[in-house]
Amino acid sequence: MLDTKYDAGKVEAGKYDEWLAKKYFECGKDVAKVPYTIVIPPPNVTGKLHLGHAMDNTLQDLISRYKRLRGYDVLWVPGMDHAGIATQAKVDARLKDEGISRYDIGREKFLERAWEWKSEYSDFIRAQWAKMGISVDYRKERFTLDEGLSNAVKEVFVRYYKEGLIYQGQRVINWDPQAKTALSNIEVVHKDVEGKMYYFNYKLVDSDETFTVATTRPETMFGDVCVVVNPKDENTNYLIGKKCINPANGDVLPIIGDEYIEIGFGTGIMKCTPAHDPNDYQIALRHKLDMPICMYEDGTMNELCGVYKGLDRYECREKLVEKIKNDGNLVKIETIQHSVGFSERTDVMVEPYLSKQWFVKMKPLAEAVLKDQENEDTKINFYPKRFEKTFNSWLESIEDWCISRQLWWGHRIPVYYHNETGEIYCEVDPPKDIENWHQDEDVLDTWFSSALWPFSTLGWPDNTEDLQRYFPTSCMVTGYDIIFFWVARMAISSKHFLGKYPFKDCLIHGLIRDEKGRKMSKSLGNGIDPIELIDKYGCDSMRLLLSTNSTPGLDMNFSTEKMEAGWNFINKLWNASRFVLLNKPEGYEYSEPKLESETDHWIISKLNYIIKQTTYNLDRYEFAIAGNELIDFVWNDFCSSYIEFTKSTLMGEDLEAKKKTLDTLIYVLTAILKLLAPFIPFVTEEIYQAIYGKEVSINTESWPEELACDENKANEIETLLEIIKITREIRTENNVKPSKPLEVVIEGFSANENEISILNKMCKLEVVDSISEETIVRPMSNGKVYFVMSEVVNKEEELAKIDKELKRLEGEIKRSEGILSNEKFLAKAPEAKVNEEKEKLAKYKESYKTLEAKKAELQ
């Protein structure tokens, strides 16, 4: 028997361990079943899970449980990502707290500490997975740095390298001076920030003539190699071939011509710093210029900067501008708003930096995926479909991917250099005479290994049974923020190495924002810990919030009110289930329902519809539609209507009628539990076992099927419910107590004895053949309902009230129309104020129209 009160903590305690012990989530037990594989982003081992992970897990678990109930052999591989930059930063911070750095202990000892961190935080993550109830197969758990995935990474790197798709070259890349590592373009977050534009005078050599150059980054002037103008610009092209003085350090700079300079933009003259700007780098390549670097890797100024050596780049900027001002070469400083790149991991302003890095040639790889996207049989289906355009557009404009990172934590690049000859060796296994070689110091971008997740986790490059059975993946669930980071790269890797897409469907959900619609962040302090939500409301309530308020592709605002609404619904289901169980007589044995009453046919008809709708919407990943329709069915059709219909029978003395009613109740309740199980697995299991015993589980059940019923009989109850609704509206409109009996004549519907009894019990109606007094008439679908006017309203008093209100509304309408016809008001008032007045006028007119109709009815 269920407890009197629903207690989420008590219901959810221990269930997950029991499910794991009974191996409900292990795949491959029945190879006759159709395989279904699902993927979500593996969480980073940098800390505890956040609400975004809870969203991923909830939606993916919902799909998993639904597909199992539908008879699929579901594989969901759990796993974690090593998160190179983020994890190294966490371990560095821990070492700093101990008064040491990674350089003090060396690479090997540092990696030992990083693995300790991974072990500690992976335990946290598994505990949170358990709290969320996710139905993963722990036998298959993977980590992006485990042996198998490391072998896959090396295999991919070596194949790319031998195919000429990986190369090493000098480029101006995005540099994180805090993490001291390169970043790919999509690891840079661009923010609009306030900055300054500095205008400096440059003096021509052997002349008193000066010209003005503007820059936002004066500190890079120590790396300038020339000044550039457009050869077609008649205002500046006379300067080509001359020389000028760099106001930062007095160096003589040549003035050259290049059409990159936009005529008419700014001063039309640009300084060129090839090692610290990607566009300047291209100019330097065209003109075969030097590319001096003026900063160290940590963002401090190097020996090129003279007295500014060792200063932070921003401190150098301030001191240098002051020096140029004192020299009389500062023209002006303007405050501007401009877009600046920040490291996605450390939030430090990125420095464009000339560096030797490893790159992947992405264009030919992307073209193969784009070709597949043109074919319905080979393309990835995006939900919502609009994200396919986002995906394709990025692939069409893709740039080479910088994959090397100057870190210690990660997949070390499998390239070795001979100590004497400098020969390069690139194979999966290290050279046999390893003592004569040294390995490349860099590691690979974290996303390099993540891009292999759908097939590396199944044993690739070996042709394992899991790979043959479960690849390609059926569905991928992720947020739109990592389409470029992960989805596109998985598509590229899978196509290149296995010749097909990594998953057939890709479900994109939005971000979870706070109640004010703001993005959750540490700086705002508005982050929400999913475990705290679970501790307060229960996991099922959180899952219900995330699943029934999530529209594919759109952000959702977190809502405490909706969280509580989810708990209230579960409580409603709990109480309804208790009612059913409390009315089971001793010795009762369930049997297939024999539908006899109209109410039985009606509830089965409604159940058939909700089974069909839920199946349809879950197949389309429309979880919010499916969940909310289910909630409406349970709350209104099952609890508020059908259970009320059954109460007289259940409390009566007819044991045979009681058993038939219980059979239908339990049949419908069981179907409801199965339909809800993917959304709220803990409480549905508790209720299911309260009905059928602890030795069984809803996890091993099948999806409910439709049961034949008489739709004509079901439609009679629909009419009955319409009459009940009309009666309740009449009572509310006229403040008539629910307990007061009302006589009615029903036109167009002949109610039988049982239906008349229901009307009497549900809303105190006494159905009569005729009424001799004045009536109030209400239309319904198949006829009309006539109420005795004197039972519902005092005609004279009501007419007087209506006349008084009509007079007031006439005044308001006249006032409002006067305001809106006043041209001065329309010209001066804010648009919001005008719209507010228009809305008021529309409401006044609508109320006036309603009251006139009511007056006519009473007269």
Keywords:
859 residues, 7-stranded mixed sheet, 27 helices, 46% helix
Explain what the structure shows.
The protein has 859 residues and is an alpha/beta fold. Helices cover 46% and strands 17% of the residues. It is built from 27 helices and 29 strands. The strands form eight sheets. Strands 7, 8, 9, 10, 11, 12 and 13 form a seven-stranded mixed beta sheet that branches. It has a five-stranded parallel beta sheet with strand order 2-1-22-23-15. Helix 17 (560-582) runs parallel beside helix 19 and helix 22 runs parallel beside helix 23. The chain is globular and about 115 Å long. The two termini are 57 Å apart. The mean pLDDT is 92.
Number of strands: 29
Q: Please give the alpha-carbon distance between the first and last residues.
A: 57 Å
- What percent of residues are in strands? 15-25%
Q: Major β-sheet, in short? A: 7 strands, mixed
> What class do helices, strands and sheet pairing give?
alpha/beta
**Spans where pLDDT lies below 50 across 5 or more residues:** none
Helix content: 40-55%
Mean pLDDT across residues = 92
Topology:
Layout: H1 8-12, H2 15-21, E1 35-39, H3 51-69, E2 73-76, E3 79-80, H4 84-97, H5 102-132, E4 142-143, H6 147-162, E5 166-176, E6 181-183, E7 188-204, E8 210-215, E9 226-229, E10 243-245, E11 252-257, E12 269-272, H7 278-287, H8 313-326, E13 330-343, E14 351-360, H9 363-372, E15 381-383, H10 386-396, E16 401-402, E17 404-405, E18 415-418, E19 424-426, E20 437-439, E21 443-444, H11 446-450, H12 453-456, H13 465-470, E22 473-479, H14 483-498, E23 503-509, E24 512-513, H15 530-537, H16 539-548, E25 556-557, H17 560-582, H18 598-619, H19 623-650, H20 655-676, H21 681-692, H22 711-734, E26 742-747, H23 753-763, E27 765-767, E28 775-780, E29 783-788, H24 789-792, H25 795-820, H26 823-828, H27 831-858
Parallel strand pairs: 1-2, 1-22, 3-4, 9-11, 15-23, 22-23, 24-25, 26-27
Antiparallel strand pairs: 5-6, 5-14, 7-8, 7-10, 7-13, 9-12, 10-11, 14-16, 17-21, 18-19, 18-20, 26-29, 28-29
